[in-house]
Structure to design on (638 residues):
């Protein structure tokens, strides 16, 4: 028979000659002493159906709600297995407690885990996340729509545009970003020049390094790298700023005073970034090419004048324009996502961190996807 | 019934130059519901926090369940902390956990009960404090003020503590909810042999469930005893407090 430590909850299962089973429980049925009793009962319920049980509670010393809950659980489960249960010898205070807790136990009797539910669970969660995804997209589209309405309104009523806020945001997102953009584009220029130099040297085609640097930097790399830096820097700060305002109910306060958050918070941010990003890209072009020029000089011994002369003849102005024109599109994506995620922040402190991360990840992904789309489109168009 | 569970003797509390308590004394007996009363800023919350070892008085001694808090050992204080439940004035639910997780966290950390049983206990406690079952999966940010109070009570009760500390449990509840809350406390006291220390301004609670209470004022406990003893107290602060209640008692007696 099963025996356990004296102070722990104990349950002895005794078989009597007339086929009734007697549960003799004793010890403390409290939350830190229930493990053994639970195991014995669990085993018993798996193997026994349709039996008559006398549950003797007379030797139970203390019982708390965990103990009563355990009793209730198995009592119900055994009943479900068509067992006939009689409880004997329960102390009156235990019975009182049972009655109190019984009153608050949920009515639904849960069956052991369904066979199908194991298979349906993955499908269920796939379905749920698909629905969440679609809802997310629709609400983003709704946000974009609302934003365009306000943009149109602003264009029709130019005096309602918050120029002060735009300038402040340009300073934050553009001016302050210059050092980090300079550093990254310089490094990218160095990397491209080095990688190219090693290959071109093999063919003695040193001078083609200029074509390579000029076109790849202006057309692809500097827009992309600048956008990624800005997404990490500005996109995240937009989400965090608006998120905190949402958390402290500042945004609600603005609404009640008739200050449309779209007009006061979102539009200035989007416009500011759409103005700054192309400028930053142009700046990154210069730094990247300068870095390439430096490396070509050091490594391939192409003089600066030679480099610039070659650059003028091979770098069509359209490449520079294409690169810069991507700027406003990327900027719109980054700023719109950043603001949208900021508005999604709910009241818990944790959600700011979560939505900031999501916003940066979304923005970088969309920037790259948008860039790929540009590549395909422009190539197909022969530009 | 009359052995002492909490003994506060001669405590002095200072925040910088602001003296909050200057020689306050009181004692709470086994199985009673003990109220702490006093004006705003009279140091009720501070006293409660000292009883649960969140703050320490500058001098004086507090003993809880026979342990002197100024010299208590680590293991003893761990045992004490398991044996009481605390409901903070603002709820203080963990904002990153759902209500069910908040309520069940002590069971999960301190016991090795199977998860399913923990969930059942949690659900039962949630029902018990009068929250709808759908609230279990919500985060604290999604609850109303009164629901936060209830969830925090469920969390305080989950281990069946011997001692329950409540800081203004019924403020923010509707009158019906407050009455149900009071009844629940009474019922639990009877069954679990709880000792309850509560800070309250709610005259209904004081009238209907508090056995004995202390009135804080002038940096001291200016009166301690049962309702009938205290309303006879001639001190002006006490009289201010119960000026209204006397009339109520008269009319109740008149019925
Ligand atoms: N951490 C602290 N630092 C400095 N002063 C404090 C601190 N906590 C409380 N106090 C001061 O102690 C005094 C008592 O505060 P306490 O919170 O105990 O009041 P209370 O009686 O609970 O009031 P209420 O009914 O408004 O909750 C107040 O004057 C308060 O300014
Ligand atoms: Mg207080």
């Amino acid at each position: 028979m099963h025996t356990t430590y004296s102070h722990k909850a104990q349950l002895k299962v005794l078989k009597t000659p007339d086929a009734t089973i007697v549960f003799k429980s004793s010890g403390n049925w409290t939350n830190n002493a229930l493990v053994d009793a639970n195991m014995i009962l669990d085993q018993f319920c798996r193997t026994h159906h349709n039996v008559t049980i006398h549950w003797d509670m007379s030797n139970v010393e203390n019982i708390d709600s965990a103990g009563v809950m355990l009793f209730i659980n198995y009592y119900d489960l055994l009943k479900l297995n068509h067992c006939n249960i009689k409880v004997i010898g329960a102390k009156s205070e235990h019975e009182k407690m049972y009655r109190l807790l019984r009153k608050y136990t949920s009515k639904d009797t849960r069956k052991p885990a369904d066979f199908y539910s194991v298979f349906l669970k993955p499908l269920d969660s796939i379905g749920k996340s698909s629905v969440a995804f679609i809802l997310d997209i629709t609400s983003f589209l709704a946000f974009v729509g609302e934003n365009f309405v306000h943009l149109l309104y602003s264009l029709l009523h130019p005096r309602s545009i918050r120029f002060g806020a735009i300038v402040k945001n340009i300073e934050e997102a553009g001016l302050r970003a210059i050092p980090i953009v300079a550093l990254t584009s310089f490094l990218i220029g160095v990397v491209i020049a080095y990688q190219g130099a090693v290959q071109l040297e093999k063919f003695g085609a040193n001078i083609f390094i200029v074509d390579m640097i000029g076109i790849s930097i202006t057309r692809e790399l500097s827009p992309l790298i600048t956008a990624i830096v800005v997404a990490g820097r500005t996109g995240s700060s937009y989400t965090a700023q608006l998120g905190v305002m949402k958390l402290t109910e500042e945004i609600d306060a603005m609404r009640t005073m008739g200050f449309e958050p779209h007009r006061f918070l979102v539009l200035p941010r989007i416009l500011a970034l759409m103005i700054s990003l192309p400028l930053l890209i142009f700046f990154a072009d210069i730094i990247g090419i300068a870095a390439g020029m430096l490396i070509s000089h050091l490594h391939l011994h192409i003089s600066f004048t030679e480099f610039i002369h070659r650059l003028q003849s091979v770098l069509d102005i359209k490449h520079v324009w294409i690169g810069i024109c991507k700027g406003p599109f990327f900027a719109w994506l980054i700023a719109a996502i950043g603001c949208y995620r900021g508005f999604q922040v709910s009241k818990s402190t944790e959600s700011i961190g979560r939505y900031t991360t999501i916003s940066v990840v979304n923005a970088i992904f969309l920037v790259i996807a948008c860039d790929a789309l540009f590549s395909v489109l422009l190539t197909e168009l022969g530009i | 019934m009359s052995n002492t569970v909490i003994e506060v003797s001669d405590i002095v509390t200072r925040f910088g130059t602001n003296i909050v308590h200057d020689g306050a004394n009181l004692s709470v007996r086994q199985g009673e519901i003990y109220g702490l009363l006093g004006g705003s800023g009279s140091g009720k919350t501070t006293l409660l926090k000292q009883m649960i070892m969140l703050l320490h008085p500058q001098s004086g001694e507090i003993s809880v369940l026979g342990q002197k808090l100024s010299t208590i050992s680590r293991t003893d204080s761990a045992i004490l902390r398991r044996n009481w439940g605390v409901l903070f004035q603002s709820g203080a639910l963990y904002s990153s956990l759902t209500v069910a997780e908040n309520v069940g966290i002590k069971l999960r950390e301190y016991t090795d009960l199977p998860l399913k049983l923990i969930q059942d206990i949690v659900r039962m406690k949630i029902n018990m404090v009068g929250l709808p079952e759908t609230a279990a999966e919500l985060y604290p940010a999604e609850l109303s003020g009164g629901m936060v109070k209830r969830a925090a009570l469920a969390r305080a009760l989950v281990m069946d503590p011997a001692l329950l500390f409540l800081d203004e449990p019924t403020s923010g509840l509707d009158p019906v909810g407050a009455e149900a809350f009071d009844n629940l406390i009474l019922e639990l006291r009877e069954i679990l042999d709880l000792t309850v220390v509560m800070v309250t301004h709610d005259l209904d609670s004081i009238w209907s469930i508090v056995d004995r209470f202390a009135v804080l004022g002038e940096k001291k406990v200016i009166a301690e005893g049962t309702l009938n003893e205290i309303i006879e107290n001639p001190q002006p602060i006490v009289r201010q407090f119960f000026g209204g209640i006397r009339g109520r008692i008269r009319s109740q007696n008149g019925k």
Summary: Chain B has nine helices and ten strands. The domain at 4-253 of chain B is CATH 3.40.50.300 (Rossmann fold). Residues B 15, 18, 20, 38, 40-46 surround adenosine-5'-triphosphate (ligand 1) (CB under 6 Å).
